[in-house]
Amino acid sequence: MPHKKQDLIDQQLQDLNDDGVDRRGFLKCMAWAGTGLVWTMSGGIPVSRAFAKSNGKDAGITADFSFVQISDSHIGFNKPANPDVTATLQVAINKINAMPHKPDFIIHTGDLSQLSKPSEFDTLDQVLKGASAKQLYFVPGEHDMLSDNGEQYLERYGKGTKGTGYYSFDHKGVHFVGLVNVANLKAGGMGSLGHEQLEWFEDDLKGRSASTPIVLFAHIPLWTIYPDWGWGTDDSEQALSYVKRFGSVTVLNGHIHQIMQKIEGKVSFHTAMSTAFPQPAPGTAPSAGPMKVPADQLQKVLGITDVNYMVSGRSLAIVDSPLADSGSSASRNGGSLGELTRSFG
Amino acid sequence: MTKRNMWVLAIPVMIAVVLLFAGSSRVTASNSSNDQPSGANTAVNIDNFVFGPQTITVPVGATVTWTNKDDIPHTAVSTDGVFKSKVMDTDEKFSYTFAKPGTYSYYCSIHPKMTGKVVVQ
User: Fold this and answer.
1) Which phi and psi (to 5°) does residue A326 adopt?
2) Domains of chain A
3) Which of A4, A16, A76, A78 has the fewest CB atoms within 10 Å, i.e. is most exposed?
4) ipTM summary value
5) What's this model's pTM, rounded to 2 decimal places?
6) For chain A, which ranges sit under pLDDT 50?
């Protein structure tokens, strides 16, 4: 029942806005998360309407800075439901370029390519060159490290990174960490960070004030969404133990080609849509393979994620925006509502 | 390709055809040929992120051929480093000949939840 679902989500959003996440603790931490997180999710995938007219105050977004997350462009993929993934990536970039507030940078959370081919990376570079944001950050997906242990990826996108391609940087008071959980995967396991990277990560956070907002980004979700499909990271718990003392932690992932969110204490998890093809909700299909959708629906299930950071309001807004405006039809978002419900439940 | 080479290629095919018939008659006879060594049953299809059959039993010297039927690339990599396929895109194949008896566990290095076994008797 859509109504019931909507009620449930309203309730969950209400909980977030109220004291569900210990607001006092948040403020004390001076986190960037004043009233918890402002999930700009007006009932599901949302928000392309709010997003489209987000000329500042109207949409309630007057950010001190923003950045955009794109994910899973899978350049080289050419099968149903998307024979032209380069075109949909281009649509995503056009959408970013048309934003009223210019993002400071773009983060790509992996699966840049389908088969780690040089020609695929070339095509990606060509499209990304057209982005108005000139600063780009990457982490690899498993598709980017297929045959050469990621050598090609590291050479192109991993300059100055450590180990398998992990690194950190600071931007306007926020500490960003790009983690790699797609290398050296073990039989029967899920995503893996590995001992060496975990040590580096622990060390990287040492000496940082607990009030520093932290953003972690990695390809495979750093929380267990669906182990049967490998949608999780075996040693993510250890990684997350290192950020426990921080007042605001945001985790951005890709890999599952759909939006899922979860808030656990001061940590909020978020997965992004793909710019290439959708994948089924956990357990709703025989496998995690590409989901086939009618051509006119495709761009409604692909999208980008816009993250706005407000120092003054101490809040973070994450706006997921499909490539095609979905108008006012709530039914189209039905599936996503279900995912949102599941991820909170 | 020389004529001689073509014959070399044709021989295993003929053997396979013979074994195929032998295999199918055994199925009718016993109805439980899956666990028996069988030269015919050396194909592993990757479908919906699953190696099928998950355990395949073959005689020493058999060649196992994996075929990827998914829209997503996969690999077949021995956990002990005995064999390692290239990345198989849709409909691509990888073959390996097992010269020694034993149990060979393998997985897809891209989707490590996918695991399988080759038992060589």
Assistant:
1) -95, 10
2) 2-344 (3.60.21.10)
3) A4
4) 0.75
5) 0.77
6) 1-61, 313, 327-345
